[in-house]
Amino acid sequence: MRARRQIGNTGVLVTDISFGASAIGNMGRIVPEPEANEVLQSAWEAGIRYFDTAPHYGRGRSEERLGRFLKSRRREDYVLSTKVGRVLSPGTPLKEADGFFDPLPNAVRYDYSGDGIEASLEGSFERLQTRHVDIVYIHDIGTYTHGVSNGTHMRNLLATGLDRLQRLKDRGKIRAFGLGVNETRVCLDLLNETDLDAILLAGRLTLLDREAEDQLVGRCREKGTSLVLGGIFNSGILATGPVEGAWFDYAPAPAEILAKVTALKEQAETLGLPLAGAALHFAHSYPGAASVLLGTSKASSLKRNLDCLAEAPPANFSRVFGTPAQEGLQANL
What we know:
GO terms for molecular function: pyridoxal 4-dehydrogenase activity. InterPro entries: AKR (IPR020471), NAD(P)_OxRdtase_dom_sf (IPR036812), NADP_OxRdtase_dom (IPR023210). This is Pyridoxal 4-dehydrogenase. The protein has 333 residues and is an alpha/beta fold. It has helices at 33-45, 61-70, 114-128, 143-146, 150-170, 185-191, 216-223, 237-240, 255-270, 275-284, 299-310, 317-321, and strands spanning 4-6, 13-15, 17-20, 50-52, 79-84, 86-90, 96-97, 100-101, 106-110, 133-139, 174-181, 198-202, 226-230, 247-248, 251-252, 289-295. It has an 8-stranded parallel beta barrel. Strands 1-2 form a two-stranded antiparallel sheet. β11 (174-181), α6 (185-191) and β12 form a beta-alpha-beta unit. α1 runs parallel beside α11 and α6 (185-191) packs parallel to α7 (216-223). The model is unreliable at 327-333 (pLDDT under 50).
């Protein structure tokens, strides 16, 4: 069984490695049902007991697949998180939507109000075949996703959304809530407004992009907010290396990023690690990180990453990459 770590000041305990279910929502390609089941089964057999999904992933397809898989497991044996901010409703069939192929025939609208959050959750409960989820993340709020429209969404969240999440928590429908985003600024803004149990931060605390170290890591430590780290390969470049066509942050990597990754690869090789292995160990050993999301549709990829993490990082890993020491920074572990 994998190590478990506490989320904030709640009673929610998550495994140190979690399964991110975006890929089984047909992200980038159609994933056959047997392949989706195989990778979920592999995660379960590896001791992973924290699964994260969202309505956004295939317009509900990821949630449906995960719900079917978990239906035969005892509810108390795993931790489940999903996200709010997008409300699904019956729509027309599409071949592709937002990078997900063969999505469920649902329309989508953004809504961060209390009513929108509850409507989103009720749909998720149905697709996931559960009566509660352990963690709810406010998904993709911030200018990174919404640009100039974000002001309206933030006002709705502050006016009624946060209060509704607290009421849902008080009623036992959820056990913890926080943010699921790709930017640090909105995290800092909301931590100034309220307490959050956790932040699922994608791509901003990685071997390559350490933006969150500037202010957010310390702020989370002060507030007792756990970090769940996603996007640890920065859209793939830390897995593939600085090859032609490598992607960073959902787009082809620019020259300056390729140069940074080349330097990181050389550093990793001095330790006898592949670049992907260094990225995995950076995230997994980072103080304050409650869990690291591994998102894939292939059981072989999941096994390769878990095998890498099964080996301790080299003794001088922290010195080479300038990462903080573990001692004194483990309030959320």
